[in-house]
């Protein structure tokens, strides 16, 4: 399914979980794997001196420094590199998100894998502040391909995804994510769980929905799912549909846990705005930082 996979890494322990999934997926798909590390941002203009993103120290990007970093990457992923040979280690200089997107575009990768954050001591660490890092947010927002975010140790998806949860709010972006979910489930023979959580926490003019309103919305959601998604699954019958009510990210996480999901697929934003202008939706962000399994953020079909 994937021919070229880009693993964006700082080679720190924060990327270990994403590394395991990256090498696994590449091996499973017999794909070319690029492990890209961005050395840092030039100190000034076109200076050859960069601020190392891990240490915060200034380093001169010469042949010796590149060789040293490449050796460190090779050592960090020595076991995986031995097990999967079709891997290329790559270095870049610049703003991490920009360089990751630039590399993905240049090589035409069809999947980017990264952690919710790349540094253990990042003040915006997902675990310390329950928000995703700026690099991940920008890559997910602007990438032309799906972005798989791995925030915790992945034990259920080893070698293969078998139980996929696709979440929809019926936005155009969610429809794009469905195309990816459908194609992925069909390709690998996984069960596809189509899920919608009706948000009962939002109110209009201070009025919360009554039980009759909730039941009416659930019936409407079922009709939308039948028309927009089930009607496109004539070639695939290994799916299920469920609709719950509550706080969307809470219900998604509960549903994924109940189904023992090994992959959650969502649109990276929900509002009907161009992907370039959209922020990472709060529901997606909360699912990313709390999910026990990887989350695929899809901005385009």
Automatic annotation (TrEMBL):
<dbReference type="InterPro" id="IPR006016">
    <property type="entry name" value="UspA"/>
</dbReference>
<dbReference type="InterPro" id="IPR006015">
    <property type="entry name" value="Universal_stress_UspA"/>
</dbReference>
<dbReference type="InterPro" id="IPR014729">
    <property type="entry name" value="Rossmann-like_a/b/a_fold"/>
</dbReference>
<protein>
    <submittedName>
        <fullName>Universal stress protein</fullName>
    </submittedName>
</protein>
<feature type="domain" description="UspA">
    <location>
        <begin position="161"/>
        <end position="297"/>
    </location>
</feature>
<feature type="domain" description="UspA">
    <location>
        <begin position="1"/>
        <end position="150"/>
    </location>
</feature>
<comment type="similarity">
    <text>Belongs to the universal stress protein A family.</text>
</comment>
<dbReference type="Pfam" id="PF00582">
    <property type="entry name" value="Usp"/>
</dbReference>
